[in-house]
Design goal:
By secondary structure, this protein is α+β, with helices and mostly antiparallel strands. It is 34% helix and 13% strand.
Length: 296
Amino acid sequence: MFIAGDACHTHSAKAGQGMNVSMQDTYNLGWKLAYVLEGRAKPDLLRTYTIERHAIAQGLIDFDKEWSKIMASPPKDPDHPELGGVDPAELQTYFVKSGRYTAGVATHYPPATVLTAAATHQALAEGFTIGMRFHSAPVVRLADAKPVQLGHAARADGAWRIYAFADGSGQKLRKLMGVLADSEQSPVCRFTPKGADIDSVIDVRAIFQQGHRDLKVEDLPPLLLPRKGRFGLIDYEKAYTPDLKSGLDIFDLRGIDREWGAMVVVRPDQHVANVLPLDAHAELTAFFERFMLDRH
């Protein structure tokens, strides 16, 4: 197995870039090891680490070689172009480009493994590019009307996330919630161990189109009000609405199709794995079947 982070530290001309890329290596590999060791996923899942991260490491190595060459060159003299050197504009362009490695969040995984789907339904959620990191946006949590970032709902707990953005009528969303909660073919039911919290493997969250004053918590589908933990307390943090007061409507910011809605499936390492219609129940299960093991 290729450990990309080691190569990054060996060849990187900028330790910060290598470190951040190596941290992404850890995020990528850690949850996969846990899934295989705990019997959640097929062992072949581990092969996706090499496929996804080898190309990232090689890109960083090639970039840093070119960056070192540029940094070692003198500025170009407009009066004596024959002396060579680096154009300051070229240096600035390359410096900006280096930010994607420094930040470590611009990685795009192509559909080369079972974890990244083809962009068949990308038009339903144009702002959540399949293969890229989940791009957060402001929302309002329905239960307490508190403005929050949707991306902050995710924790480092190894769970997948399904962000279900409501359709115009809301009927497709409610049907999806019922299927995920009760159907024998539901990936939530099939791949969650008996006795575990319902969101421990696949955490389902819903984003409605109405404002928070137009919805009632008690009218939410049961899947969005799960009882969890030792005392069976209700988790009220599964439903959100657009932040209409600020004018930053997540449906507009992230290009969500208002008529059809969308399911955005996000990996434990926060990369978008799939975008599907709300009524693509069988397709959603088929996606998880590619690498998950049935726990029932």
